[in-house]
Amino acid sequence: MEVITAVKGFKDILPEETGKWRFVENTAREIFSRFGFREIRLPIMEKTDLFKRGIGESTDIVEKEMYTFLDRGNEYLTLRPEATASVIRAYLEHALYNAETVTRLFTIGPMFRRERPQKGRFRQFHQIDVELLGLDDPRADAEVILMLMQFLNEVGLSNVSLELNSLGCAACRPTFRKAITEFLNGKEDGLCDDCKRRLVSNPLRVFDCKVKECQAVIIDAPRLSEFICSDCRSHFERVTSALKELDIPYEINTGMVRGLDYYTKTAFEVTTEHLGSQNAVAGGGRYDRLVRELGGPDIPGIGFAVGFERLISLLDKVDSSSAQPDIFVAALGEAAQKIAFILSNRLRLKGLHAEQDFSARSLKSQMKRANRLNCSYTLILGDREIEENKAEFRNMATGTQQTLPLDNLDEQILKLIKER
Ligand code: HAM
């Protein structure tokens, strides 16, 4: 019969890799808590309107990448394509802003976007997402960026670039939008079909298009930086000077617009040359109107998300080998197998990593397996041993062996292993 495979773009994380995942998660939790961030766990499915309103109707994500379906209760639901909108939804639903004026949250989990799968791009991927709500101070931007760079540094990622831009605000972005629309007027033929559509719905998106021809058209286009208002300009200057004070190198990329509509003022991306065209390991920015747009009070926010798979793919040096078993119980014959079964499970309950072979294979092949698993000790229970009411306990590193009586085997082994 045909084997059923995973859904295209959905990936298994195999035991060889989970050590790296745990290491990255633990490092994130440790560093974020130093900066006062607390973990929030959220559902992976939300009402579709949350993302339409949050991310923006004319973004690629909402237009063509969401996993949306009508559930049996006749309601449109969506597998979350990102976490920010969900974090704000929970923040508002539980009125977390009443408890403290500044709220620092992070969440880790799977996101879903129906993009074309390729290296570094999946349909189910994972993010480490951070959100700081309640501060419009530019130092908050610098602090969040510092925490991101420190996290990437502590997991062992080097050679990354931090790219910064200001995306303006409701006051200055419309002027830029008008200028870019005028600039692109008459150049439609040089644009891809998506960008032709974007011209009407969201002309800023043309900057984000990966198609070479579109990039060529946009190269001489006016930049947002020429249009931003004095408030946005001074905010951006204060962010960059705080970054300098914190010794964080950055580059300004005036063509970076980000793929989500909620951003205002500071936007940033961390990129590396080693990822090919999907070169962003992390991205984020300020969103001072999002909370209000989702029906809440006027509360500013800033945050970022790290792409877990992309980060992991860059961390080859991290040792993720699984733990070495303490003991392998090799048993031959029915009586010995019975003792081995009870013994190995008792040892596990007492805190040891014990392995046993259920097959009735020869002692030699069982020992081979113990070697392959790199077990520290082996207990050998053969016919002869059982007859003589004893077992052989072998130190696999030194090859030394000692005979143990069968009574109270678990306690004896525990003592010997703890004494080593
Ligand atoms: P984003 O730039 O859409 O931002 O995603 C953040 C990161 O998630 C990307 O830099 C990338 O590493 C990873 N990522 C995105 N799509 C995929 C994919 N299809 N496969 C693999 N990795 C992917 C956001 O999602 C914002 N919510 C970030 C944010 C938080 N802004 C403010 N707060």
Descriptive notes:
Helices cover 38% and strands 20% of the residues. The chain has 420 residues and is of the alpha+beta class. It folds into 2 domains: 15-172 and 228-313, Bira Bifunctional Protein, Domain 2 (BirA Bifunctional Protein, domain 2); 327-413, Anticodon-binding domain (Rossmann fold), CATH 3.40.50.800. The strands form 3 sheets. Strands 1-5-6-11-10-9-7-8 form an 8-stranded mixed β-sheet. Strand 9 (266-271) and strand 10 (280-286) form a beta hairpin. Helix 1 (15-34) runs antiparallel to helix 6. Bound molecules: histidyl-adenosine monophosphate. Histidyl-adenosine monophosphate is lined by residues 82-84, 113, 115, 120-122, 125, 127, 129, 131, 259-260, 280-285, 303-305, 307, 309-310.
Question: Could you write a compact summary of the structure shown?
Answer:
The protein has 420 residues and is of the alpha+beta class. The protein has helices spanning 15-34, 48-55, 60-65, 84-93, 96-99, 138-154, 173-184, 193-201, 212-218, 230-245, 290-293, 308-313, 334-349, 363-372, 383-387, 409-419; strands at 38-39, 45-47, 67-70, 76-79, 103-112, 124-133, 161-166, 251-252, 266-271, 280-286, 301-307, 327-331, 354-356, 377-381, 390-395, 401-405. It has 2 domains: 15-172 and 228-313, Bira Bifunctional Protein, Domain 2 (BirA Bifunctional Protein, domain 2, 2-Layer Sandwich), CATH 3.30.930; 327-413, Anticodon-binding domain (Rossmann fold), CATH 3.40.50.800.
